[in-house]
Design a protein that fits this description.
mainly beta, Gamma-B Crystallin, domain 1, 3 domains, five-stranded mixed β-sheet, 1% helix, elongated, disordered N terminus
Length: 314
């Protein structure tokens, strides 16, 4: 962890030298062996003297660095594949009014000189990024949990490392949309105040209140579930996750149940003119139930592995 000495407190980039060792896998590597990843400038838009800062984490007072510079506005130049974060609370986002600024490639002006913490790191490649990352801290800090396409409810402990009512910020990858709601809702598909975002980085409007998360793959052009003849639901009373089906035969073992995992369906909805058969094993000779038009709870709850949908010609 870098600590600037007294001679560095004055904002004099000509004489400023960063002496830092980066510890990786228990070994010490000199900063001189690491190519500089960002450059911090004393003026806006990359103006004035600049200081290269290599990858690592640093404790340094922006206010002290700005001593003697009237109306100081720092700027930072960030290379491709690199990110930098400036925080006023050592990057922990624990203070009620803790603020961070984070930047990717390009030249950026900082909004504040009140930072006490700098972190520089190599950015995760887009190909390796999950659809959504949700953070317990503002400005993409604190504990984090990755989410793929689907619905997630806090009342079912589906938030992973992020606790109920603790989500505060998120990173959404290109090609996805995320929906946050403060309640799971009567139907278990999100209710109350909700907010939606596509690709980008966001601090949540309803932070510290989120109990439902839905991640949507924008490339999925499948018909809306409620437009199809038959819908299976995760919960009784046509609640929870839902998956629509057209005429045909579907096996859970072949991942043909879509958003309803094997042995989780509890209710069904069948449109006029169609019938459906649900079986607990992938053979119609085993325990099965047959349904006509209407909404029905399954007697064989949490056991469905086989579904057949056909038109009712009678």
């Amino acid at each position: 962890m870098l600590r600037f000495n007294e001679s560095m407190m004055c904002f004099n980039f000509r004489s400023l030298f960063i002496a830092v060792s980066i510890f990786i896998a228990g070994q010490t590597i000199s900063a001189q062996a690491v190519n500089p990843t960002i450059t911090l400038f004393q003026l806006p838009n990359g103006g004035g003297a600049g200081q290269d800062i290599p990858a690592g984490t640093y404790r340094v007072s922006g206010k002290q660095l700005a001593t003697g510079v009237k109306d100081a506005v720092f700027s930072v130049r960030v290379g491709n594949g690199v990110r930098v974060r400036f925080c006023d609370d050592d990057g922990q986002a624990t203070k009620p009014n803790g603020v961070c600024e984070e930047f990717g490639a390009g030249t950026h002006d900082l909004k504040s000189v009140n930072f006490t913490f700098i972190k520089v790191w190599v950015e995760t490649t887009v190909a390796a990024a999950p659809p959504v990352l949700v953070f317990e801290g503002a400005n993409w800090s604190g504990r984090t949990q990755a989410f793929t396409t689907g619905m997630y409810r806090a009342d079912r402990n589906e938030f992973g490392k992020v606790s109920n009512d603790h989500a505060m910020s998120a990173i959404v990858s290109k090609g996805y949309r995320i929906r946050f709601c403060v309640d799971e809702g009567k139907w278990g598909r999100g209710a109350g105040d909700c907010e939606e975002y596509e690709d980008g980085r966001y601090n949540l409007r309803f932070a510290d209140s989120i109990s439902f998360i839905q991640v949507i793959d924008l490339s999925d052009k499948s018909p809306a579930d409620d437009t199809l003849p038959v819908i299976l639901f995760e919960d009784s009373g046509q609640a929870g996750k839902m998956q629509g089906f057209d005429t045909g035969t579907y096996l859970a073992s072949q991942k043909q149940f879509g958003k309803i995992p094997n042995d989780t369906a509890s209710s069904i909805s069948v449109k006029k003119g169609f019938r459906a058969m649900v079986c607990s094993d992938e053979s119609p000779e085993q325990k099965c139930e047959e349904f006509g038009e209407g909404k029905h709870d399954l007697k064989l709850k949490k056991a469905a592995s086989y579904l057949k949908v056909w038109k009712n010609d009678m």
